[in-house]
Structure formats: C-alpha cells, structure tokens
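Dear support,

I submitted the protein below through the web form. The confirmation email said the job was done, but the results page showed an empty box. After a refresh the structure appeared. I'm attaching both so you can tell me whether what I see now is the final result or a partial one.
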Amino acid sequence: MDLIHTPNAIPPAGHYSQAVRANGFVFVSGQLGLLPALPGERPQLAQGVAAQTEAALRSMAAILEAAGSSMSSVVNVTVYIPDVGMWNEVNSVYERSFGDHRPARAIVPTRELHYGALVEISAIAVAPPA
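What the results page shows now:
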C-alpha cells in the first residue's frame, strides 16, 4: 500500500491521505472545491457550485497524476452535494471534465458538507503496474 501526496492538490485537513494506491487501484479521498493557498494559509472555497466542482476535479486529477494514474483511468466516482437542486450544474462541469469517459458514479444529496462546501468528490481509479 502506497500513500499518495502531491503539493499540486489541496493538502489533507485531517488524519488521512490524499489517496492510497493498493491492489491495482488508486483510492482518492473526498476533494472539496478549495482553491490553492500559500503555505501556512487555509485554502478558501471557490465561489459557487460550478467553480467548486472544477476545483475538486482539478485536485483529483493532480492526485491521480501523482499516483501514476489519470482521469481516464477512473472507474468509480462519488459526488456529495447538500442540495439535489445542484445536480445539473455539477453534472455539467463533471461531463466537461470527463468527456467521453463514463465511470460508474453516484451523486449523493447530503445535509451539509465540511466548511460549508457545495460539493465533495471521491474516486477510485485503476493504477498502473508498479
């Protein structure tokens, strides 16, 4: 099992890794729509659900790259949103980011997300052979 960390994505805010590579897969921890920040500063949320979705997917892509994988190797995605009314806007950004690639996915309406975020995205991708 390999712990994945890259400075090109938002650092973990707790006791977890950005991702774990194990048994031929990369498991990406939930990514919030946070904007990059200077070292020592707390990242801020992007404004609006579309911008937060883009930021979360950018972090996911950077983490996958650090693990030797990519967005085109994603096999499963879970998207959490605090309001099902955000579904269409999230889906529009998601569709642009993944293009013709269509991993399995669940969009889960939830009460609220940490820091007041409007979206959180986790994923599982195929990892290249070590």
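Response: this is the final, complete result; the empty box was a page-load delay. Helices lie at 49-66, 87-98.
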